[in-house]
Amino acid sequence: MSLRVRQTLVRVLTIQVITLGLLWLLQLRYAR
Amino acid sequence: MHWLNWVIVGLYLVFVVWDGLRRTKGTTNIEGYFLANRSLPWWAVGLSVMATQLSAVTLIGTTGQGATDGLRFVQFYFGLPIAMVILGVTLVPFLHGAKVYTAYEFLERRFDARTRTLTSLLFLLSRGMSCGAIISAPAVVLSAIFGWSLSACVALIGVPTVIYTVLGGVQAVTWADVKQMVVIVGTMAAIIVVLVLRMPVPLDDALALAGATGRLQVFDFSFSLSNQYTFWSGIIGGTFLMLSYFGTDQSQVQRYLTAKSVDEARSSLLMSAYWKIPLQAAILLVGVLVFLFYLFEPAPMLYNPTHDRAVQVAEPAVHAELTQRYDVAVAAREEAARTAALTRAGGDAQATSAALEAYRARDAAVGVVRAEALKAAGRVTGQSSRDVNYIIPRFVLDHLPLGFAGLFLAAVLAAAMSSIAAELNSLSTATVVDFYQRRVKADGSDAHYLSVSKWATALWGLFACGVATYAATLGSLIEVVNRFGSFFYGSILGVFLLAMIPRARAPGAFIGLLAGMTTVGLISWRVPSIAFLWHNVIGAVVVVAVGLIVSVGRARTLEGYAGPRA
Q1: Does B277 contact A12 at a Cβ distance shorter than 8 Å?
Q2: Residue of chain A whose Cα is closest to the Cα of B71
C-alpha cells in the first residue's frame, strides 16, 4: 500500500470516527 | 408566498440558465460536450458527484424521515466511505486510464460487445425512468402545496435543466452542480441555525425529548436480512450498493471521467467519502429539530394541504371530529413535553424518567389520531396518504422568516436539477457512444456527433418530463422498473469485478451477468422479506462465481480442444 493511499485512508477513517463517535455520544446521552 | 421569496427563486433560475449558457467553452466536439476534455479540477468534480447523488427527495423526503423516524437512516450510508476507497484503488484507475466515454465501453474492451450493449441498455432503461421519478417527486409536492398543475411544476423543474444541459453539456452540468451544492448546504445550515435559535426550551432538554421517542437511536447492531437500516446492512449491503452506484452507473462514472487525471478523479470521489455521512446526519438532524419545533407549535394534522382539504370536503363530520381530538392530543403532548423539559432541568432523575414516560404516552396518542387522519385521507383521495415529504416544506412556508421559503424552494430546485442534469447528460452519452456511434454511424464527423448528442439530451429530457407528468398513472410501472433496476445493480458490479480478474473471459461475464440477474429476480420473487440492500451483494457474488466457473471451464474445454490439434 503506497504512502498516499495510507494517508488518505487515515484521513477518511479519522473523519468517520469523529462523525460516528459524535452520533454514538448523542445516542448514549439522549436515546431511551 | 411573499413576492420576495419568488424573486429569490426567479433569480436562482435565471442565474443557473445564464451560467449554463456561459459554460459552452470547449464544447465543439463530443469529448468537450461529454467529458469537458478531461480538464476539470477535483473539487468541482467532487461537488458534482455529491450533487448528483443528492436529489430533491433527499431534501424533502430524508428530512421528513428524520422528523418521523429519527437518525437511524444514516446507517444506509455507512458503506459509502469504504466503497469510495475501494473504487479509488480499483475501478477509477481502470476507467480513467482506459480513456473511455462510458463505463460500458470499457466492458467491450475487456470482454465483448454484447456485454457492453446489455449493461448499457439496462442503464438506459432504469435511469430513463428514474430520471422521471426524480422530477416527479418534488413536482407532486410543489403542486399540492401551491395548488399548481402537476405539468406546470414538472416544467418549472425540467425546462431550465434541459436548456442548460443541452446547450452547455457536462461543463454546464458540473459548474451548475457546484453552485447548487452551495445553495443546498447553505440553506440547510441556515435552517438548522434558525431552528436552534427558536427552540423554546434549552437544546439539551429538547434533544432528550427527541431521544425519548427513539429519534436519536442511530445504531442498530442486530443482524437481520429483512431490516433495511441496520449497522450490518449499511456496512455490507451499503458498500456493495455504493460500489455499484459510483463504480458502474454512468451518471456517476461520467462525473469523474471529466477530471484532469486519475489522482484528481480519485480525490473527487474521496470528497464524498469524507463528507457524505456528516452531511446526511445533518440533513436528518434538520428533521429531528423540526419534530421538536412542532412539539411546541401547532402541528398540522395532515401535512399535505390538498389531502386535508379533500377530507374536509368529502367527510366534514369526520374531519371536524379528528381535528378536535388532534388539537386536544397535541395540547396534552405540548404540556407533557414542557413538564418533562422543566423536570429534567431540575435534575431529579426519577421525576425526569416519569415525566418522559408521560410525554411518550402523549406522543403516542398524537400518533394514533394522525394515523386515523392519514387513513381517512387515503380513503377519500384513493392515493397514498404518506405525507413525510410534506413536513419540511410546510414548516418552511409556515414558520421561517421572510426569504427562507424562497431560499428553500431554490435549494429544492437545485437538488432536483443537479441530479436530473447529470442523468440526462449521461443518458445522452450512453445513447450516442454505446449505440449510435457503435451500431448506427461509426464514421460521422465531430460536428455530426455533437449535434446528435444535443438532440439525444433534449429527447431524454422530454421523455423524463413525460414520465414525471404521468407518474401518478405510471406509478406501478415506475415501481416495476425500479424493482427491475435492483435486480441488476449488483450484477453489473459483478461484471466489473470480473473485469479485474485476469482469468475471467467474455462468455463467463455474459453468462454470469444473466445468472446474477436471474438469481436476484428469483430471490426477490420467492423471498421478498430479504431487504433490497442484500440483493446487490447476492447479485455481485453470483456473477463473479458463475463468471469464473464458466471462464475456467471454457478455458479447459478450449485447451482440451486445442491440444490434439497442436
Answers
A1: no
A2: A23
